[in-house]
Amino acid sequence: MILDGKLVAQKVLDEVRAGVARLREAAGVTPKLAVVLVGDFAPSQIYVGNKMKAAAAVGILSEDHIHPGGLDRSALLALLGRLNADPAVHGILLQLPLPGGLDESEMIGAIAPEKDVDGLHPANLGALLAGTPTVVPCTPAGCMELLDHYGAKLEGAEAVVVGRSRLVGKPLAQLLLARHATVTTCHTRTRDLAAHTRRADVLCVAAGRARMISGDMVKEGAWVVDVGINRLETGKLAGDVDFESTAPRAHAITPVPGGVGPMTVAMLLRNTLAAAERRAARR
Ligand code: NDP
Questions:
Q1: How far apart are CA 261 and CA 146, in angstroms?
Q2: Is residue 99 located within the same domain as residue 142?
Q3: pTM of the model
Q4: Do 89 and 182 lie in a common domain?
Q5: I need a labelling partner for 205 at 20 to 30 A (CA). Which of 2, 115, 169, 282 fits?
Q6: Widest Cα–Cα separation across the chain
Q7: What is the CATH number of the domain that holds 35?
Q8: Is 280 a member of any domain?
């Protein structure tokens, strides 16, 4: 079974579009996303363009703050401060990675937690860890939405997450744990990775290494969620999982592209709508 991210993302986007219309009617509020891009990293330019296009399609306003020539620390802090203070802005997306010289942790921490629609502020990650999630990081939330849509049974399942980044691996492991999976997180110091991945009923891979998981590393009948997006020398995109050798063994698998990628965008917009709804409810 193919876990079709385009299809499930469209379902989420339809719900967001309806929510945006409801909020406008009930509270006279249109959600607005501020997108900040520093530097000229080509993939980030594409991601930011896709996110703004998707926002427009569901009726979410967006404004961009694009600085291809870079911004210094104090200028970026000042920009984030202005966006935090702007009542018309409900969500702030700081596109990562930041160019060298800028401290990502500091900049993420400078975003008001209630506007942190990426869910990466320590207050939001802490809430997730505490079991009281408010804003959940988009990519892990997208993985869970996909698994839920297709009916994966998580309770009691052996779940293995390859990767422990703040952006994907760590929050994804927490989300799986919250759903009563038995979770193992693997990383570069893990001894015998295959011994872990072969045990997984649910295998989620977010390592950023093209096709590092081959079919022989996957349990027969597993659910496989491939977060990786890697550009090959040929210019083609590949996931972290070797689709060809893994698909025949897996019960269900995400394609790359067309799996987790579209889900990430949809969850960002869901988070933006939720931020606007929370603010409207406080007024
Ligand atoms: P990071 O580079 O921040 O983290 C990678 C993680 O994988 C690290 O924890 C690292 O371990 C681990 N890792 C790397 N190589 C191995 C290996 N050989 N064996 C075991 N573990 C390994 O990446 P991100 O989490 O930001 O992203 C991961 C991938 O997901 C990338 O391809 C990225 O492009 C993609 N991505 C896709 C998104 C989407 O929307 N589909 C969104 C975000 C990311 P250690 O901690 O020990 O270094």
A1: 11
A2: no
A3: 0.98
A4: no
A5: 115
A6: 56
A7: 3.40.50.10860
A8: no
User: Is residue 105 domain-shared with residue 145, that is, in the same domain?
Assistant: no
* 255/173 same-domain check: yes
> What is the total count of domains within the chain?
2
Q: What is the pLDDT of residue 268?
A: 98
Q: Please give the structure tokens belonging to residue 202.
A: 């649910």
The answer to whether residue 11 is catalytic is no
User: Last residue of some domain: 79, 113, 147?
Assistant: 113
Distance in angstroms (rounded) separating the CA atoms of residues 164 and 150: 25
Probe residue for ligand 1, chosen from 51, 161, 167, 214 as the CB with the greatest number of ligand atoms within 8 Å: 167
Q: How many residues does the chain have?
A: 283
Q: What ligand 1 atom has the least distance to the C-alpha of 142?
A: 40
Blockwise average pLDDT, block size 10, the chain, 283 residues: 98 98 98 98 94 98 97 98 98 97 97 98 98 97 98 98 98 98 99 98 98 98 98 95 98 98 98 98 89
Question: Which structural domain, as residue segments, surrounds residue 166?
Answer: 138-260
99 with 158, same domain: the answer is no
Cα distances from 175 to residues 61, 82, 106, 118, 162, in angstroms, run 29, 32, 25, 15, 14
**Residue 57: predicted pLDDT:** 98
d(CA 277, CA 152): 30
Alpha-carbon distance of 13 to 55, in angstroms, equals 9
CATH of the domain at 239: 3.40.50.720
Q: Residue 118 catalytic?
A: yes
